[in-house]
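Entry:
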Amino acid sequence: MSVMEKEFITFMQRFDACPFEITLHGERHKIGDGIPQFSVVIHKAPPAVELVKSTSLALGEGYMDGNIEIEGDLYQALNLFLGQLGKFSTDHQKLKKLIFTSTSKANQKKEVSSHYDIGNDFYKMWLDETMSYSCGYFEQEGATLYEAQCCKVERILEKLALHEGMTLCDIGCGWGFLLIEAVKKYKVHGVGITLSTEQKKRFEERIASEGLGELLKVELLDYRELPKYGTQFDRIVSVGMVEHVGRGSYEEFMRCAQTVLKPGGLFLLHFISALREYPGDAWIKKYIFPGGVIPSLREMINIAGELGFYTLDVESLRRHYTKTLLCWNKSFQEHRDEVVSMFDERFARMWELYLCACAAVFQNGIVDLHQVLFSNGVNNALPMTRWY
């Protein structure tokens, strides 16, 4: 065994909370005490210097390149291993350009496009029929992913207390399912904004096919341009978008929403959250969500209060996101050969690692998912019960 390989084994011994086994050149190395819960095969060990600079990048790229293989279920192994995420090393100074990116309009559009403009055909392979790319709500034990996404959207719309003729803005509207449901069920007037040309194209196709052109439109628009849009809304919703805003810009995001929300209007913010404020994971930022930062629940609540938003309801959907991600991965695996044909093997390994690792960090409580309902100032017109 070479010096580099010995250094790799030594580094990995810090992750001893859950016993596992590493096989290197046919030789087995046990990490932790007890019966190994999963096994890893190393074809080429990452250098220790790279593990110290970013454990996440070194191990993630090792898996993407096929140098690291998991024997058995990838999610189950990551669920056991990533509970020790706090032991990962990250040199923030050396990775400064990767971790702390510009929040300019041009750069954020580029970052959003890098993920969401991969192609509608790619996302259609493994998302459900609603094309919802956010946490579902599994109200019933045996619910399908489609049912969970429909239930999530209906739950959000109920929280917004919509009435016919109201105006609703969706900041980061995705492929538009939420707004389409709102317009069809509640006869509201909807506006969706996105930075993804692929999402806008697909959304406009859905608007046309549903014959909703008089009630619904989608704009290629940065949230910072909303105050100049010239419309005041009764309700605002934002699902899985504030994670792209960047720390330091949350107040501007909330202020822009408040500027276009009528007094007493409701704002539902659905976002991946954290207990504390972290700069983010290097591998996720490099390969999946460039510039993405997960807000803490407390900083969003604090900013809201300073701006005069009243917090009406807070709900955690953390375990629902674990289940959503596992459903996505199951569907992804069913279409894996198509993904490889469309891109390549490295891309497929990257995405399955992303889906399974995210499911594991939600399951371990490393990250959470919160829906927070605010009112812009006091609203005494809502029913007094929580579930109105």
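The first strand starts at residue 20 and ends at 24.
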